[in-house]
Amino acid sequence: MQWLYLAIADIFEIVVAIAAGKAEGFKNRRWTAITLVSGALGTYFLSRALLTFDVGVGYAIWTSIAGVGITVLGVVLFGQRLNWRKTLGIAVIIAGVVGLQLSGAA
Amino acid sequence: MSHTDRSSANSWLMLLLAGGFEIGYALSVGGSHGFTRLSWSLVAVVFFLLTLWALSVALRTIDVGIGYAVWAGIGAAGAALLGPFFFDESLTVTQAVWLGVIIAGVVWLKLADRPEPAPASAPETPDTRGLTSQARETQGAQR
């Protein structure tokens, strides 16, 4: 269940990233509101996940998967290029999360 | 110390502060126990807003990719190191190694995912806390 909570929290964190970008330094009220509401919902689901995960472990997985999602969305939706550097970063993060899981630490 | 030096030093101080706030956010979200403890929950909200503010100020002058990399690294490493001090948790060697791998990956990805220095018509890069466009605008104005 904690992985599901973390996944939901990550979706909201990615929405925060996109909405905050469109909020134009928080001058645009609609996107600022979406930023804050998504931030609140993401934080709630993160806190549910951290009932099971240790704080450092859950937080690291959450923030890193959000980073992967943001990069992938940038490629899929915003026409960014997926170069070898980004690919390596994504691979290292996934290896770290899987390693943490397989070692029983997560 | 020239005006530029001082303002640059202030930006880096603000970035370190943003990292510190993010550690506070992570720890208080954990301490809120699924938002069932009011005081920790309120502290989490305050840290969330403080982080957003400090990061946006710091990224007016610091390169967005470098800024995010430093901020994310501080937040994740700080939460991992300080978690055991505040909660009934332990950080084993195996955990620490894999966490190190994840944090290195995040820092690397943030550096790799920085928006390419391109004309204003370049597509927006959504980024964590998404303050990219604002930072880019301000950078352009100051150079």
TrEMBL record, chain A:
MF terms in GO: transmembrane transporter activity
Cited InterPro entries: EmrE-like (IPR037185), Small_drug/metabolite_transptr (IPR000390), Small_multidrug_res (IPR045324)
Transmembrane parts of this sequence: 31-51, 57-78, 87-105
Keywords from the named record: Cell membrane, Membrane, Transmembrane, Transmembrane helix, Transport
Localization in the cell: Cell membrane
The UniProt record lists the keyword Transport: yes
GO cellular component entries: plasma membrane
Membrane topology: Multi-pass membrane protein
NAD as UniProt keyword: no
Chief location: membrane
Record-stated family: Belongs to the drug/metabolite transporter (DMT) superfamily. Small multidrug resistance (SMR) (TC 2.A.7.1) family.
PANTHER family per UniProt: GUANIDINIUM EXPORTER (PTHR30561:SF0), SMR FAMILY PROTON-DEPENDENT DRUG EFFLUX TRANSPORTER SUGE (PTHR30561)
Protein name (database record): Ligand-binding protein SH3
TrEMBL record, chain B:
Protein name: Ligand-binding protein SH3
TM helices/strands, residue ranges: 12-32, 38-59, 66-87, 93-111
Membrane topology label: Multi-pass membrane protein
Compartments where located: Cell membrane
Pfam families tied to this protein: Multi_Drug_Res
Keyword Cell cycle: no
GO cellular component, one term: plasma membrane
Keywords, comma-separated and alphabetical: Cell membrane, Membrane, Transmembrane, Transmembrane helix, Transport
Region ranges (Disordered): 116-143
Biased composition (Polar residues): 130-143
Regions annotated as coiled coil: none
Keyword Membrane among record annotations: yes
